[in-house]
Amino acid sequence: MVDSLKADSSEGGSVDNVRDKCVVMIYDALALDSTAERAIGIERAANKSMNFSTGNDYRAKMRSLFLNLKDKGNPALRNEIVLGYISTEKVASMSKDEMASESVRMLKEKIASDNLFKAKAVGVTQAETDAFKCGRCHQRKCTYYQMQTRSADEPMTVSRFHVHII
Questions:
Q1: How far, in Å, CA of 142 to CA of 122, rounded?
Q2: How far apart are CA 62 and CA 11, in angstroms?
Q3: How many domains does the chain have?
Q4: Choosing a second label site near 123 at 20 to 30 A (CA), which of 6, 20, 108, 156?
Q5: What is the pLDDT of residue 125?
Q6: Distance between terminal CA atoms of the chain?
C-alpha cells in the first residue's frame, strides 16, 4: 500500500505519522485509478479544516472519508473525486450525509418518513354499530367512540355520530 503511494507520488511524507497513515488510507480508498496528489490534497484540506490538529475529530473525519470512499455501493462519489469534479477542499468539508450514495439517501428519507408517520398521535378510534338508535332519523347505523374525560373512577363518555345523514 505504502509502496504504491510512494511510486505514484514523488512528494515526501510529512513529519506526522498519523497524517501519513491518513494519506495512505484515503489513497487506498480512492483505488488504483487515483493519483496520490488527490489523496494528499484531501488530507491537507481535512487537516486544515481541523486547525492543523490530528486529534479525535480529525481521525473521525478521516475514518468517515475512508469508509465513504471505500463503499462499493457508492462508486459515483469516488469517480467524481478521481476525475476532479469535486475539489479536495469540498471533499474534506463534506458531511457523511453529503457523501452517501443515492440509495442510502433514499433509504434514510424513507425511514424518516416512516418514523414521522409512526410518531403521529393516534386518532380517535371509532367503531360502527347498530346498538344505538338515532333520535332524529331513527336509523341504527352510527359510529361511536369512548373517551375518558373525567377521573378514572367515572364512566367513559360515549360520543355517537350518524353514518348516513338524511
A1: 21
A2: 20
A3: 2
A4: 108
A5: 64
A6: 82
Sheet containing 127-129, strands listed edge to edge, beginning at the edge strand earlier in sequence: 127-129, 142-147, 157-162
Residues 6 or more apart in contact with residue 4 via CB below 8 angstroms: 27
CATH number reported for the structural domain that contains residue 156 in this entry: 2.20.25.10
Strands 127-129 and 142-147: antiparallel
Distance CA 119, CA 21 (A): 44
Over residues 61-88, the pLDDT tens digits come to 989 888 888 888 888 888 888 888 999 8
Domain span holding position 97: 2-102
Q: Which long-range contacts (CB under 8 A, 24 or more apart) does 7-11 make?
A: 8/35, 8/36, 9/35, 9/36, 9/37, 9/40, 11/36, 11/37, 11/40
Average pLDDT, stretch 137-157?
A: 73
Q: In this structure, what are the phi and psi dihedrals at residue 144, rounded to the nearest 5 degrees?
A: -150, 160
Which of 81-90, 105-114, 150-159 is least confident?
A: 150-159
Distance CA 72, CA 66 (A): 12
What is the mean predicted confidence (pLDDT) over 43-55?
87
Whether 93 and 131 share a structural domain: no
